[in-house]
Design brief:
The complex is a heterodimer of chains A (393) and B (143). Chain A has 393 residues and is α/β, with parallel strands linked by helices. Chain A has twelve helices and twelve strands. In chain A, helix 8 crosses helix 9. Chain B is mainly beta and 143 residues long. The chains are: A alpha/beta (393), B mainly beta (143). At the A-B interface, strand 5, helix 4 and strand 6 of A face strand 1, strand 5, strand 6 and strand 7 of B.
Chain lengths: 393, 143
Amino acid sequence: MWESRCKIALSGVGFSKATRAAEIPLAAHALYAVKEAVADSGLNLSDIDGLTTYPELPATGHAEVDGISIVSVNCMMAMLKLPNLSWHIQTGSVNIGGAVQQAVNALLAGVCKYAVVWRAMHNPKGTYQNLPGTYAQGALQFTAPYGFGGPGQGMAVAYTRYLEKNNQKRDKMVTLAVTQRKHGLRNPHSYFKDPLTPKDYFDSRMVAYPFCLYDCDIPVQGAVAIVLTTAERARDLKPQPAYLAGYGERLRFETAGRIGSLANYMEGGRSSAELTWARSGFGPKDVDVAQIYDGFSASVMYGLESYGFCKEGEGLDFIQDGRIELDGELPLNTFGGSLSTGRIHGLWHIIEGALQASGRAGERQVKDVNVSFVGASAPIVTGTTFIFVKEPY
Amino acid sequence: MSDWSKVTRPIPVPNEWTKPFWEAAKQGELKLQRCQECRRFQHPPYATCVNCMSVDLKFESVSGKGAIYAYTIMYHTGDKRFAPAVPYASIIVELDDAPGALMAGNLLDAEYTEAKVGRRVEVTFQPLNDDFTLPQFRLAPGA
């Protein structure tokens, strides 16, 4: 087991109001979320001495403008002017979960005491996923001329492979969409406020077969943030801490531009989960509640299977029969997932994993949670995994 | 059947790794990058052999026969240049000669509903402009 098991805890959390259009600059969303997370911990901004994020804009064909379409560490430093700042970094080889892990490592190394992590997501005007302009450079030269645009299509090709190789039916995914929306209605920060019926799912327009509209999270403008600190310090703060029992990150990567490879997703998930199970000392059977990244519905299946919650090819059967309800065998994406909150990427999943472990999930709190699992990041190929626990034993 | 005649496709920009692929395609030939040590094909081209770490890579001809590995049917008309062809099939093909190497293409000369994992396909060449020809795929005879 990991020698740093349960030595770090997630404390405060903060949310900006996610809106469909960019009504206020993204930097303002990030600032709001960070200030709220710090206040939730009962801290002052002058206590914060560590900053990290993963600032990437997933929309393709749009400019990255700091403060407008991304919020970098530099941008946050400029806004906060933290008098006691002692550490910061941005991650690239893994998604936002990698930034969280860097903050954990910095706290363990003693180079900061209270680290803030945020994820700010921009919804650009016009089409979200643009093909490149007249010319297709780099890895895109082999995909864009054939009408392959953004990650949605990349995930869609893996999904047809998944469905037809495993002799599965896309109709079964309705259970995930409908159940997650039901969970989302208990989350005051959900973007969607109305129930989703099976009829809504089946009547919705196809986007990239096998994905219909409700298999895809909706792009929004919004930000979320967390405060991480050592377990000892966390106990003195306002909220009940969620202790980090273990984490992992994907250890495989196929060459850029290789799309349609289901193995890429599965091996990414498997390698990350193996580290997390080994470090935490837990296994899939010990998990009381799970959050699994759901930017596109199919990635939940790849997660359930590659993390070891069910056998390969059986994810669509696993989610049936009430198993993922709040009182089911494995309550799943209890905050509604990205399918309910809008596209905020994996930090929301990490937040919910921690809130469930610390008993702070309000109306959607699952009973008797001790072991809370998170498969964060989009897609699973840049994925990370975490386990939060209520009791640091 | 998808109408490709009104679609303006992005034009590939070859680099030092990929130039022989596009030069061969212009001549109506399909050539993929092959490791001269372990003999494995790989696609897209890369700086090194991702199987054995060799840097001795050359482009060699392949038959162009293979099977649909995965596909998606595009309905979303986000990019207006592709709107006239919607719905269209974008497919990923695994060639018989190059197991593990995955090539993107469209399924030409067939209804998009014909795209299925495992369907046999063969390469065909679609001129893009005077300088570029796209390797594309159509159903193999009898598939």
